[in-house]
Protein: ADP-ribose pyrophosphatase YjhB (NUDIX family)
Amino acid sequence: MNSNFIHTYVSVDCVVFGFDHENRLNILLVERHLDEKRQIKLPGSLIFSDEDVDDAAQRVLHELTGIKKMILKQFKCFADPMRANNENDIKWMGMEYKHHIDRIITVAYLSLCKIDHKINSTKYSTVDWFPVDEVPSLPFDHNKIINESLVEVRKWIELDFSIIFELLPKKFTIRQLYQLYSALSEKYIDIKNFHKKISSFSYIVPLDEIETNVSHRAARYYKFDAKIYKKNNTKLIK
Amino acid sequence: MNSNFIHTYVSVDCVVFGFDHENRLNILLVERHLDEKRQIKLPGSLIFSDEDVDDAAQRVLHELTGIKKMILKQFKCFADPMRANNENDIKWMGMEYKHHIDRIITVAYLSLCKIDHKINSTKYSTVDWFPVDEVPSLPFDHNKIINESLVEVRKWIELDFSIIFELLPKKFTIRQLYQLYSALSEKYIDIKNFHKKISSFSYIVPLDEIETNVSHRAARYYKFDAKIYKKNNTKLIK
DNA sequence: GCAAAAGTGTTGCTTTTACACCCATGA
DNA sequence: TCATGGGTGTAAAAGCAACACTTTTGC
Structure:
């Protein structure tokens, strides 16, 4: 064996996005414990010997939230040879996996979650939402992964507009959708024109319900109809 | 150590696209030798102990073509636990890497090459172009990788139109660009309107040269100006 | 009534699409 | 002269952007 070739550990890490009531993108982070110190990180795991990476990511998401089938998308393999060379990270991996780990490459996933959904982790004692621009310094290359995930989630929504509804409540106003879309697309869109366009789509179904207790004209609630969307699968928003 | 976690080998595999004179997408495949038999496969390699996957892919591309800096894009990690369980594949890996390899995951890359560029492989004795719909059955999950790469290369060009010029000669006619674009986009585009639109772009620069020996009005050659493209980076073709 | 946001309508501009028409060249 | 494709023009249709106007609600 040419010893230059490497046998390595492989993990998956998941960046789960949520959209909060202050119109900010948030990410789910968990706590790791090291020498009495607590530190937050992305949820992740080594893969099992008989497990595909997609299955490992699905497992991590389930252990994280208690939700059975979350939408997910692999977006990049991070394999910098130095990505797990920090002393604390090596120490933590030794504790977590009861073994000295020389090198670890990770496959990063995106996922989306309604921020009001109850989080019922079977693995982590502490799971919290963090607004993306308030994420502190994280172990490994997790900050890098998050930065790149932001670019990817935008591309994902450009490619398949329907996944945006994973971030909204089942019933939502067009203003909510507008604010989410604006947070993701970065370019200014006129809300009136947005309203007209969105409400013209057949898969955006108006409900009989309207907002209450607002100090202005109440907005109508809408729901997303995935079946109609799939039938027409047009390009929607350019 | 929880022995369910796995230590595995990691490789990169590269799908290099070319566009031939019959308007077909082609892929570069290499030969592997096993028991006097020859079989073709995607070019690839295990990664070195101090090597990032992007660097490994760059190395594979260089060993494959002799070209220094080829454009490349990571597109997916393939990690099905059964992807290297075929007897012949296990045998071949034993010969190639002088070691029994229990499991191998691979990170797949896209690359683009002008099909007339001279191929000067320092590693493979046989390197050939195959039209995508004439690719035979390949080892591992290489057919699957190629199928998914086709979807990805289309997305890539939608996202960054400028990389399409990696597949064309330095000077090209608008018909050539049209045929390549048509082969990639699958939906019908009117060639006259395409011509008008393309020739209106400032980064498509007309040359003084025109075709010779054609039995119709000779078409003008154009070149792509990357500097002008970068300055204006508009969305070009929707 | 006022402020604020919902929701609709109008208008002009840009882009797309479908063709018509003339040009250049080899056979 | 004919076939083939190059290249330009035009006009209708569709889509987009800017913004005016009316509606609804709480204070």
Observations:
- The longest helix of chain A spans residues 142-159.
- Chain A has two domains: 9-159, 170-232.
- Residues 190, 192-193, 197, 213-218, 238 of chain A lie near DNA strand D (CB under 10 Å from a C1').
